[in-house]
Specification:
Low-confidence stretches: none
Shape: elongated
Number of helices: 3
Structural class: mainly alpha
Largest sheet: none
Length: about 70
């Protein structure tokens, strides 16, 4: 494992960043747009390699219909 990271460490970090940044951007935008301040702070501070971001987008980011 050490040899793998020594050889491919930079590439692995770049791939993880390319995976995480779009999810992070979309989840933060949706949280801000929907007024979910606590979610926004949690998504901003917790780095979970996009797992928390995906959970928020799929399950919690749907805007509730406005009462008429």
């Amino acid at each position: 494992m050490e040899q793998f990271l020594a050889t491919y460490g930079r590439e692995v970090i770049i791939l993880l960043m390319l995976w995480t940044l779009p999810w992070k951007g979309v989840s933060l935008w949706k949280a801000a747009h929907n007024g979910h301040k606590k979610w926004f702070i949690a998504l901003l501070l917790i780095n979970s390699l996009a797992v928390l971001d995906i959970i928020y987008i799929v399950f919690f980011s749907k805007k509730k219909p406005a009462a008429v």
